[in-house]
Design a protein that fits this description.
Helix content: 25-40%
Radius of gyration: 16 Å
Distance between the termini: 17 Å
CATH topology: Trna Endonuclease, Chain: A, domain 1
Shape: globular
Structural class: alpha+beta
Largest sheet: 5 strands, mixed
CATH architecture: 3-Layer(aba) Sandwich
Number of helices: 4
Order of helices and strands: EEHHHEEEHEE
Length: 161
């Protein structure tokens, strides 16, 4: 198993913790030969940490009970405030043997690296997770986040292919 090599360093606060408010284009990006479980766990760790932190702030202020579109608008604003680059309602191509077999719209595509799907339901289901995994398989992107604002506490799942 290869150890990840850090090619960019995240900004660190004086206390030695990651400062998610100032992470613009400073994501942890390991260069990995054979992708082992440890390396997968850390792929874009700072970026996914920042995304989840922004979602937690939205959920803390709004709480559950709104439509998904409300959370999408609020999360886009929070990304802007934190300097997190994103594309909203991004059209991502699903590829099959070098042809585009279809496309889907991701709620967010963050920094060209992480597919983010939002939900506003009582609890995430296996079907919601399968949807995210299918998006990752079809597009070739490695990291996905499933964020559910409908539960009493923010529910999230980070998936790596």
């Amino acid at each position: 198993m290869h150890e990840p090599q850090i090619t960019q360093i995240t900004q660190i606060s004086q206390r030695g913790k990651i400062n998610p408010c100032n992470l613009r284009n400073l994501w942890f990006e390991p260069q990995i030969g054979g992708m082992g479980d440890v390396a997968k766990e850390f792929l874009y760790k700072a970026l996914t940490y920042a995304i989840i932190g922004a979602a937690m702030e939205v959920h803390r202020i709004l709480g559950p009970g709104f439509l998904e579109s409300v959370y999408e608008e609020a999360l886009a604003h929070e990304f802007d405030l934190r300097g997190i680059p994103y594309q909203r309602q991004a059209r991502l191509a699903v590829r099959y043997k070098e042809v585009v077999a279809g496309e889907f719209r991701a709620d967010f595509w963050v920094d060209g690296k992480v597919v983010v799907e939002l939900k506003a339901i009582k609890a995430l289901t296996g079907g919601d997770e399968a949807q995210l995994l299918n998006y990752l398989k079809g597009t070739g992107y490695r990291i996905g986040l499933l964020l559910n604002f409908g539960a009493p506490s923010l529910e999230y799942k980070r998936r790596v292919l």
